[in-house]
Amino acid sequence: MSVFRRHLDILCNYHDDYVAQGVKALGNAGGCSGAAFWKVRGKEQNYCLRRWASRYPTQERLEFIHAVQWHAKEEGFTKFAMPIETLEGMTYVADGESFWQLEPWMEGRADFRKHPGTARLVNAMTALAEFHLAMETFPIENERGAAPALLEHERILLKWTDSLLDRLEAAICEPKKDCSADFQSVRFISGLSDSEGPAGVDRWQIGNAVTIPCPLKLRFESRLQFAASNLLRTIRKQRYAVLAQVVRMSNLALPLLPCIHDLHAAHLYFDRQNFNGFIDFGSAGIDSPTVDVARLLNTLTESRAVHWLVGLSAYQSLRPLQREELAALQVFRKSTALTTAIRWLEYIFMQNHPVKCSTRLVRQLERMNEMLERV
Fold first, then answer.
1. Lowest mean pLDDT segment, chosen from 36-45, 242-251, 316-325
2. How far apart are CA 168 and CA 349, in angstroms?
3. 197 band by pLDDT with thresholds 50, 70 and 90
4. Number of neighbours of residue 375 by Cβ within 10 angstroms
5. By the 8 A CB rule, do 81 and 103 touch?
6. Which residues are CB-contacts of 60 (< 8 A; sequence separation ≥ 6)?
7. What is the set of domains in the chain, with CATH numbers?
8. Among residues 288, 298, 299, 283, which one has the least CA distance to residue 249?
């Protein structure tokens, strides 16, 4: 079957109400995980057809994600796009290579970074609290335990020993080869808006290769090295103290429930001041809800104290946090920012990805450093 017609054949698995009046290919929508998207014009409204990456998620994981979404809808939470059932009553289609799903088109824009505001912050945090309240009745094996995200942060911080950070520093400071040509082809990152960055490559938006003068390329790289070196110094300064807090907190049994995890500005849709919904549940899993709170607050406030407290107050107006959750939140606030910074530097300087410097990338590293110094 032609890859160019496969999406049309997938739509044949759905009721006539969803027959496409028109289809627009969106490609990877800025990601590079292997997922692809189409905007489908139906009889009465628009839909999004999603083709998941060929190796992620597994069928078991996809069914868990859809079970979380179905439960949220049953509990009255609707700020997301619920997958539509096929003629066979399934929430996805398997074609032997990938999983596909059709869902209502999420109206709005992921433009919080361009248009931040208190009302938007409050509305997004309130929506997260509503989702967590809906998840409190989701059946799980253990309702309390060590937070998986804390254990993951502990693993990362233990892995990044002084010697490994030395290797990272050497990679950052490594002299660049002389330009043998007047022009160089450079691949730029565009649309950087993610608090997590390379924790999942699909969250990155990779621009096309463009040709720029070699001196300009070197100037970009010099700025990148400077920003990265400053960020690495802050990482070194904070790693031991944050690791100690993570280890202590990971020994506590915290309330657990399904969490979204992948909460960053590109996945938050707004219509003016209104929060329309979350668009990506691909990283959903059982965890402490405080990891969602910390990640969303870090994304929306960059850990600025006044805005952080406003957002936290909005969340707690619906779902007050227990004493140990408040303690965990402060640890997550630091460990999320720290491990995110480490992942970005590793991705840029120690992995062989075809990504070079841009002004927006430099500014992203600078913002990370500023946030780490604030927490």
1. 36-45
2. 7
3. very low
4. 19
5. yes
6. none
7. 6-104 (3.30.200.20), 118-374 (3.90.1200.10)
8. 288
Count the residues in the chain: 375
Q: Which residues contact 156 (CB under 8 A, 6 or more apart)?
A: 339, 342, 343
Element (H, E) at 34: none
Cis peptide before 213 (omega within 30 of 0): no
DSSP H helices in the chain: 6-11, 59-74, 118-135, 148-159, 162-173, 214-250, 289-301, 305-316, 323-349, 359-374
| AA identity, residue 168 | L
Q: What is the DSSP string of 6-17?
A: HHHHHHTTS-GG
Measure the CA–CA gap between 299 and 194, rounded to whole angstroms. Answer: 8
22: CB partners within 8 A, 6+ apart: 40, 41
Entry pTM: 0.85
pLDDT-derived band of residue 83, with 50, 70 and 90 as boundaries?
Answer: very high
> How would you label 165-203 residue by residue, b for 16+ Cβ within 10 Å and e otherwise?
beebbeebeeeeeeeeeeebebebbebbbbbbbbbbebb
Q: Cβ neighbours of residue 364 under 8 Å, at least 6 residues apart?
A: 192, 197, 344
User: 166: which residues sit within 8 A by CB, 6+ positions away?
Assistant: none
In degrees and rounded to multiples of 5, residue 20 shows phi and psi of -70, 125
Give the separation between CA 77 and CA 79, rounded to whole angstroms.
6
- Any long-range contacts for 313-318 (C-beta under 8 Å, 24+ apart)? 314/121, 314/122, 314/123, 314/125, 314/126, 314/129, 315/125, 315/126, 315/128, 315/129, 316/129, 317/126, 317/129, 318/126, 318/129, 318/130, 318/133
